[in-house]
C-alpha cells in the first residue's frame, strides 16, 4: 500500500496498463507535453513516447471518433475529455458511433475504448464546467460508466475499464482529484459492476457514488448521532450495476435513499428507484427518496451553487425523510 | 491526370469516351474486371429496388446508379487489410472491397446469415475481415473512424491505409474538418474520397457551400488534394493508387474530389427529378460508366452482364430463403 492522490492513482493505473499491453495508447488535449490539465498523465510522454501519449487539437468529436477507429483497428485507446461538459460536442461519435458499433454489428465487432473525464461542482466553475452528465451516457445503451470515490478504486476501476472489450466512461470528480488514500501497490483491479458497502447500517440504504459518497458519509455520521443507522453503499459502477449488493441492502433496511450530484430529472436516482420498486416492491416500507441537484443550470456564486447542488444538510434531511415515521 | 493541392480546374480529360489514361500499372484491373465490379453494383441496386417495392426490403434504400466508377476504381487500389468506412450509399464500396455478396445481401435483407446477423442493416455494414469498419447513417460520421484506423496503422507501422468515402454535403460537417486537420497534423495514411455528385439530397452545391471549391477548402489544411473524373474507373484507380502510395510512404493524407452524378433519386422514394432538369440528368446518363464500358466491351460486356444478373438473382433467392435472425440476449449489456 502507498498513500497517493486520486490523480496519482489514475496515473499509476495508466502506467500499469501501458506497461502491460502495447496496444494501449492515450490521446487528449494537453495530455502529453504538458502532462494533463489535472496531471493525470504526468510523465507518461517521457516514459512511453509520442506514439503512445498523443496531444490532440481541441477537436473532441474528431479525436473521440479516431479513438473508435483505432479501437476497431486493434488498439486499446484511452481518450481524455478534459471536462465531461465537453463531451457534448462529441456526442454523435459517442452515442451514434462508439456506443452502437457492437450492437449494430450483431456482436461481431468489439470497441475496447476508455474515455477518461472529470465532472462535478462545488468549485465555482459555473454552468458549463460543473456538470455530472453520467445519465446521458447511461441513457444510450453501449457505454459502461464507472465513477469511483477514492484513489484505490480509481486505480482498480481505470485498469479494469481499459481491459474491458467495450467502451467505458471513467468519471472522475474534480473535488476528488487531490484527495489522498491508500492504494495497493502492483497490479490492482476492481471489477466493473461491484458496489462497496462503505458504512454498514440497518435503518436505511443510501446508494451513492463519486464525490457524493463523501457527503453521504458525513450526513450518515450526523444521522447516527440522532440514532439513525444508515448503510452507505458506494455503487462505484453505474453500468453494470451490482444488483446483488443493492438487493441485499434493501432486504436488510427496507428503506432507500439515492443521493447524487447530477440533476434529478431522468437521472440515475429516478432510474434506480424505478428498478428497485419493480424488483423489490414487497421489501419497501417507505417511498424511495432521491437527493439530487435541482433542475437548474449550476450557478456561479457559492450561495447559489449550494442552492442547486446537494449538500450535507440536504442529504441529512433526505435521510430523515426516507426513514419517515420511524423517527 | 490529377493535381495536388488547391487548384480547382476541372479534370483535364473530358468526361467521355475512352477511359484509359496514363500508364496502366501491372496491378490495374482490366476493363472487363472494372465492368464486372460496376455492373454488379448496378444489378444489385436494381434488384434491391425491386425488393423494396415488393416489401421484402425494409427501410430506406439509398441509390448510387451513375456513381459506380468511383467505388470500382477506388477499392481496386486497396489491399484486403486496408481500412474502409463508407456511407448509407456505400454498398458499392462494400462489394468492391471484396466483402462476400451473399453475406452483404443477407444483411441488407435482414437474415441471420448477414454480415451483422441482421442487427445492422444496409446503413450499418461491418466486416472486419475485409477492413470494413462500417457504413454509416450519419453524414460524415465515419470519417473519424477511418482517421483513427489510419492512426493505428501509423502507430503500428504496418503499412495499411484507411479510405473513407463521403459526399459533397459531408464537407459541411464540423467533424470532417476536425479529422482533416488531425490527419494533416499527424500525417496519417488516410484517404478522404469525396464523391461530388453536385447534390446533398436535394440541395445543390451552390446553395450549401460558401465556397464551392472543395479542394481549395480542404487544401488549406495542408492536405494534398486532387480532382478526378469520377465516372472513369481507371482515372479513379490511378488517382487512388497515387494517394495510397503517398500514404504508405508516410507522406500523409490525400483528399480526392471525384466528380460524378447520381443519375437516379437520392433513395427509393425520390424520382430525382424535382430538383434537377431532365437535360442535366440526360447529359450525365450519357456518361454512365457502366453503359460506356458495356458498349466498349461489346458482346463480352453483354455476356458479363447476363452472367452477373444470373448470379445475383440466384444469391438473392438463396438469401430470401435463409433463416431470419434470432434475438441474442447475451449481446445486451456488453456481456460478450
Ligand atoms: C448528421 C446528418 N444530417 C442529415 C442527414 C440526412 N441526410 C442523409 S443523406 C444526406 C445528404 C448527404 O449529401 P452528401 O454528403 O453530398 O452525400 P450523397 O448523399 O450525395 O452521397 C442527408 C442530409 C444524416 N443522415 N445525417
Structure described in brief:
The complex is a heterodimer of chains A (327) and B (336). By secondary structure, chain A is of the alpha/beta class.
Structural notes for this entry:
The complex is a heterodimer of chains A (327) and B (336). The longest helix of chain A has 15 residues, at 6-20. In chain A, 38% of the residues lie in helices and 20% in strands. In chain A, helix 1 runs parallel beside helix 6, helix 3 packs parallel to helix 4 and helix 7 (212-225) packs across helix 11 (312-323). Chain A is α/β, with parallel strands linked by helices and 327 residues long. Chain B has a domain at 67-101 and 122-300: Rossmann fold, CATH 3.40.50. Chain B contains 11 helices and 7 strands. A 5-stranded parallel β-sheet of chain B has the order 1-2-3-7-6, with helices on both faces. Chain B is globular and about 50 Å long. Chains A and B meet through helix 3 and helix 4 of A and helix 5 and helix 6 of B. The complex binds thiamine diphosphate. Thiamine diphosphate binds next to strand 2 and strand 4 of chain B. Thiamine diphosphate is lined by residues 89, 137-139, 166-170, 195, 197, 199-201 of chain B.
Which architecture of the domain at 67-101 and 122-300 in chain B per CATH? 3-Layer(aba) Sandwich
CATH superfamily of the domain at 67-101 and 122-300 in chain B: Thiamin diphosphate (ThDP)-binding fold, Pyr/PP domains
Radius of gyration of chain B: 19 Å
- Strand order of the main beta sheet of chain A, please? 3-2-4-5-7-6-12
CATH homology superfamily name of the largest domain in chain A = Thiamin diphosphate (ThDP)-binding fold, Pyr/PP domains
Mean pLDDT of chain B: 92
Q: What general outline of chain B do the C-alpha atoms trace? A: globular
CATH class of the largest domain in chain A: Alpha Beta
How is the main sheet of chain A built? Answer: 7 strands, mixed
What does the largest sheet of chain B look like? Answer: 5 strands, parallel
Per the CATH scheme, the topology name of the largest domain in chain A is Rossmann fold
By DSSP (H or I, 4+ residues per run), the number of helices of chain A equals 11
Judged by helices, strands and strand pairing, the structural class of chain A is: alpha/beta
Estimate percent helicity of chain A: 25-40%
Number of strands of chain B: 7
Assess the beta-strand content of chain B as a share of residues: 5-15%
Please bin the fraction of helical residues of chain B: 25-40%
Q: Give the strand order, joined by hyphens, for the main sheet of chain B.
A: 1-2-3-7-6
Give the SSE string of chain B.
HHEHHHEHEEEHEHEHHH
How much is the radius of gyration of chain A in Å? Answer: 19 Å
